[in-house]
Amino acid sequence: xxxxxxxxxRDYGLFLAKTVxxxxxxxxxxxxxxxxxxxxxxxxGERARLVVQRIDxxxxxxxxxxxxRLLNNKQWKALAKADALIEADQDKERVAGTRKRVxxxxxxGDIRASQVESLRHEITAIIAAHRPGDEVILRLDSPGGVVHxxxxxxxxxxxxxxxxxxxVVTVDKIAASGGYLMACVADQIVAAPFAVIGSIGxxxxxxNLHKLMQKHDIDFEVLTAGKFKRTLTVFGENTEEGRAQxxxxxxxxxQLFQSVIxxxxxxxxxxxxxxxxxxxxxxxxxxxxxxALQTSDSLLVAAAQSADVIDLRWRTKDGWSNRVQAWxxxxxxxxxDRVVDRLWARTRTDHL
Length: 352
Hints:
By secondary structure, the chain is an alpha/beta fold. It contains 13 helices and nine strands. It has helices spanning 2-40, 56-60, 62-70, 73-96, 116-129, 147-162, 178-183, 210-215, 240-264, 270-273, 281-287, 296-303, 320-351; strands at 47-54, 101-108, 135-142, 166-176, 188-191, 196-198, 278-280, 292-293, 308-317. Strands 1, 2, 3, 4, 5, 6, 7, 8 and 9 form a nine-stranded mixed sheet that branches. Helix 5 packs parallel to helix 6 (147-162). It is globular and about 90 Å long.
């Protein structure tokens, strides 16, 4: 009887999981078709906007939450009055246009440097609104990725320097490879002591299934017009000539990477550091790869004492159909996970 119950629960659970999966697929397809239809009519698609937030007052007054709990009412009122006077003086500076602005950007890099699409809009806004003396702090966190994506990201940062806006890049965790390519454009690089810095090199890797295909008598042809149109392939037979050309292209990219570093950080001895290795922040400081050791939090708190610190985010908002589709996908996946978890929990319990 026990074995029958276990078998029934298992079979029913698998049936239910399959049913939910099929239903999810149908709903996702319907949602996607609705999304495409709305976009074709010019509605329901993605909408983007620039989100602007002043965070300096929040940074300055974090400690006030502690004071509020510890001081008596009279002491707290006196402290609040002093803060109000400081805010009034700052308002006068803003009206006169003399108060410095520090713009804060975030770049969490993935393999494709996909956030560069947001970065370009944020930088365009800053260039249009900046005043003499303003600066940008970019909080960078990236292990690198595709050359063209991070090359474009570095070029976007160059726009700030061309416009005369001082750029500080802070690295709390990692700025390696393409991430460091971006960082070196800055007027100053500030890193946490254990942030990972460097990886000045280029890597490419791909599998080759030619021998496996030969074993199963499968032919694969690569037809090109141009001797080096395709140097290495996944399915075809790679030649020594093609491999040598591919290595030359990698070396050219590496040389280009080093030329950018030499332009912005001439104090760096490329012969010592441009071999693909990484260093922690304290080591990178000794090598000239960064200029100071400090967390981004410390830097922002210090800036908030004398400037308006403005957080900028370019955010894309999906239309209703995309939100419905995302909601369906998330909840169906959660339901499937719960069914599987309960099924296995029941099975384990029955066998104890």
